[in-house]
Amino acid sequence: MRFSMISLGALMLATATPALAQDETEPAPAVTVNGSAAVVSDYRFRGISQTDGNFAVQGGITVSHESGFYVSVWGSSIDDYVTMHGTSNQEIDLIAGFKKSFGGATVDVGALYYVYPGTRAAGDDSASDFIEPYLAVSYALGPVTAKATAAYAPKQKALAIDQGATGTLPKEDNLYLAGDLSATIPNTPIGVTAHLGHTFGPSWLSGPTDEYTDWSLGATYTWKALTLGVQYVDTDTFFITPSGKDAAEGGIVGSLTVSF
């Protein structure tokens, strides 16, 4: 899950993948395949833990065409409170998009479909899976990259926080706006990141509130195909899990990613 984590993973992938020697006489391949696998100390989606503060195993693969079109599959272990009926311990994200650079600016548009296997029993009309189109525009200036992101999930049953409480099946929408800064320290393997996001509208993950802000500060250290990351993540809301923990409470998140 989710867009913010996928953005971080993409940043790690970009910084961690080693350059491959290529014969200058050979044309660049029309299709490229990249992947990554990671262990994180806590899977945070827009500031809120998806694993009750515990470790998660994650991985993904992206197939890109020289035209700019790409498709991705990304997955993570999760805690069962993430879904409507608490019956899934896995999240799979299916992504399709188009990414193109214009000078120092890059435009990325697409859609992400969140899938939680095994969450819907026969005869159950509730929902956990949902789709979220997105648009991101980034601009690179030397070692610094600034990015603005808008992700809008149209009205869907999976976003309603009262599916089980009311006995009805309402549909809700959700808008997420975010800004990110990332930079590499010249002549070092160290990168730094900063993130600020705001969720508008209800979501199963926002707990008792329909609107909240999340933010984070982080750093990465890359050696060959490995990237070690650390972040401080926080929000201005709260979300008490079945174990009694506050999934929205601020905390430090560590990660180790290998890219290929």
Keywords:
two-stranded antiparallel sheet, 260 residues, 14 strands, globular, 53% strand, mainly beta, disordered N terminus, 2 helices, 7% helix
Describe what this molecule looks like in 3D.
This protein is mainly β. 7% of the residues lie in helices and 53% in strands. It contains two helices and 14 strands, in the order αβββββββββαβββββ. The strands form two sheets. The protein has a twelve-stranded antiparallel beta barrel. A hairpin with a 2-residue loop joins strand 2 and strand 3 (48-49). The longest helix is centred in the first third of the chain and has 14 residues, at 3-16. The chain starts with a helix and ends with a strand. 37% of the residues are buried. Residues 3-21 have low confidence and may be disordered.
Strand order across the biggest sheet?
Answer: 1-4-5-6-7-8-9-10-11-12-13-14
| Overall pLDDT confidence | 87
Please report which band the strand proportion falls in: under 5%, 5-15%, 15-25%, 25-35%, 35-45% or over 45%.
over 45%
Low-pLDDT windows of residues = 3-21
